[in-house]
Design brief:
- The chain is an alpha+beta fold and 167 residues long.
- It has three helices and nine strands, in the order αβββββββββαα.
Length: 167
C-alpha cells in the first residue's frame, strides 16, 4: 500500500492545470493504485486528484455515496438544480464552507486502460465529481465561493498554519 502525502494550499501544483493523460500504461495504473491507496488510507475521504499528490495528470479517484472508482481526462455535464452543502478539501485541512454545486453531474472520461467511462451522480457523488474535476483544472473549492462566505474562507486560509507566509 502506497499512501502518498497530500499537497497543501500554497503548493503551485494545486493551481496549475494538470496535463491530459496520453499513455495508458503500467505507470498510469500504478498512479491510479497510489491514488486509491491514498484515498482509502484515512477515514472520511471522498476523493483524491493526482495534483494533490504532486502529479500533473488528469486523474482522480473517488469514494462517495457507495460508488468507488477512478476517472481519467474527465469532462463534466452539470444539471440545473443546485446544492449548497458544506464542502472541505484535503488540501485545505480543517476548513468547511457552504459551496454551490450542481445537484447532478455526469462525468465522462476513460478508465486506466483507455476505455470510455461515464459516471452520473446526484448529491454527494455529484459534488465529489465536480470537486475532483476542479482540482485537475488548478481550482480549489474556495475559488467557487462568493460574497461574505468567500471573504471569510480566504481570511481563514490566510490565518491557517498551511498558508504561505511572507517575511
Amino acid at each position: 500500500m502506497t499512501m502518498r502525502p497530500i499537497r497543501i494550499i500554497g503548493d503551485p501544483v494545486l493551481r496549475t492545470p494538470a496535463a491530459p493523460v496520453t499513455s495508458f500504461d503500467a505507470d498510469l495504473r500504478a498512479l491510479v493504485a497510489d491514488l486509491m491507496d491514498t484515498l482509502l488510507g484515512a477515514p472520511g475521504r471522498a476523493g483524491v486528484a493526482a495534483p494533490q499528490i504532486g502529479v500533473s495528470a488528469q486523474v482522480f479517484v473517488y469514494d462517495a455515496d457507495g460508488h468507488r472508482g477512478h476517472l481519467i481526462n474527465p469532462t463534466l455535464e452539470l444539471g440545473d438544480d443546485r446544492q449548497d452543502d458544506d464542502e472541505g478539501c484535503l488540501s485545505i485541512p480543517g476548513l468547511y464552507f457552504p459551496t454551490p454545486r450542481a445537484m447532478r453531474a455526469t462525468a465522462r472520461g476513460m478508465d486506466q486502460y483507455g476505455q470510455p467511462l461515464t459516471i452520473t451522480g446526484t448529491g454527494f457523488l455529484a459534488r465529489a465529481l465536480q470537486h475532483e474535476t476542479d482540482h485537475l483544472a488548478g481550482r480549489l473549492y474556495v475559488d467557487t465561493l462568493r460574497g461574505e462566505t468567500r471573504r471569510r474562507a480566504l481570511r481563514e486560509v490566510r490565518a491557517g498554519h498551511y498558508a504561505p507566509r511572507s517575511g
